[in-house]
Structures are given as C-alpha cells and as structure tokens.
Amino acid sequence: MSTRAHSCRRVSELSSKRLDAPLSWGERFAVRVHLLYCTGCRRFAAQVEDLRRLAKRLG
Amino acid sequence: MSAPAPEADPARAARDQELVALRPTLLRMARVELGDPSTAEDVVSETLLVLLQDERLARAESPRAYAVGVLRHKIVDHVRRVRRLVPLDGGGDGDDSDAVFERAFDAAGHWRQMPGAWRAPDAHAESDDLVRALDACVEGLPERLARVFLMREWLELETDAICRAVAVKPNNLHQLLFRARLRLRECLEARGIRGAT
Fold first, then answer.
1. For B120-145, how does the pLDDT look when each residue is reduced to its tens digit (9 = 90+)?
2. Rounded distance, CA A19 to CA B116, Å?
3. CB distance B181 to A16 below 8 Å
4. CB-CB under 8 Å, B105 with A8
5. Predicted-complex ipTM score
6. Degrees (nearest 5) of the Cα angle B30, B135, B160?
7. In whole angstroms, what separates CA A27 from the centre of its chain?
8. Is B74 helix (H, G, I), strand (E, B) or coil?
9. Alpha-carbon distance A35 to nearest alpha carbon in chain B (angstroms)
10. Looking only at Cα atoms, what is the longest distance across chain A?
11. Is the C or the N end of chain A the one with fewer CB within 10 Å?
C-alpha cells in the first residue's frame, strides 16, 4: 500500500470494511482526512450504509 | 374453544394461499444462502409449517415481512449449526473479480465517475422501488458475492460466522463484501437511482 495520500479505491475499501470490522487507528485517521476533501468517497461511504438499510428490507 | 374447521374459515384459507404464494421468494433466498437446493427446500418447508400454525402471522402488519423474518431465523440457525456450507461458483474466487475495480477506478485509484448523492432511503418516497431495484441487482451478482452480501446485510450474521460458513479468511471476506457493494451501487446507479445531486 502506498504511503502517499490514500487513493479513492483504498479509502472506499476501508469504508466498506468499517461496516464489518473495527478499523485500526491509522486506517480511521486516513479515511477521515480523505473524506474531508473527497466528495466521491464521502458519497460512497453513505451509499454502503444505504445499502445496509435497504438490504434489511429484502425478501 | 369451538374453532371452526380450517376449511370453513375463509380468512385462514386466504392466509394459507398467501403463504403458498410466498414460497418461491422464500426458496430463492434460502437457495442463495444455503447453496444446496434440497436443504433450502427443507428449511423453507419447516418455515411454512411454523407459519401455518403461527397466529401472530394474521396480526402481522406485513405478513410477508413476518414470514421472511421467520425464514431468516431458520437460515441463521442452520448456518450457525453446520460446519461449512456448500461452496458456490465452484468454490473458486470466481467471476470477473477485478473488472468491477477497473470500471470504478482509474489506474491511480481515483473514481472514474463520481458516485451519486443518494437521498436517504428511509426518507425516500420511492423507497419500495429502491428495495425492488436492490433485489434485482443482488440477483445479478455472482452467487458467491450475493451469498456473502446477504449473509452480512440481510441475515446480519457476524463476520466470523460467515468466514466459517463459506471458508474464507477475514481479509478475503472484506474483499468479497467490498466487491459486492461496489457492484450493487454501480447497478443501482445504472438503474437511475441517483437522487438529487
């Protein structure tokens, strides 16, 4: 994993993982910083939570 | 205690009809989750048997949701009980694992196309349409991804139970769920679920 600013791909991966497992301190920090300036990743983070809410109503 | 015979009770007959009509839906969910068609049949039959004798079904606000809830419990019981479920997609990592990443991100890992701003589904007037769209999108997922997504988000199983049932390591499960979610958001947006931007 690159040590430079996290890519959207990596941050969205962590936004998904966050719903299933606790993130490390470093991961949480990286996500938080990235979301400050990245609209796409902010939206993705909201979308995965929407998916979770919607999925409960399937069937 | 002078309950009328079942065949003389039209309300009950209607309810039984409704249950029979629900069977395909229940079966579809059970098949994805359990893999083995005959196990799925058994679990659904068991569910219907319970429901036929369950007076709360009649009082439920949504009999369908109630029935699905009972099935959900039965599946969760089953998944917790068995050591390992029947593998899907031949057990391999399957499908076009990386294609969804290539569609979503460029070489530098940036979004190719900005995700849309969805309105909160709860506040959504067309919320039922959204659920139906999601249902169709889940149907379109490779089976393995559909299974883990539904295990996590529909059955609400803990990740270690899922890892055990489908025999994957936690990191692998996170990757599968990430791929499933990326594909589902892509699919919903392709269906025009954008909301206001």
1. 665 555 677 888 899 999 989 988 89
2. 20
3. yes
4. yes
5. 0.92
6. 55
7. 10
8. helix
9. 13
10. 43
11. N
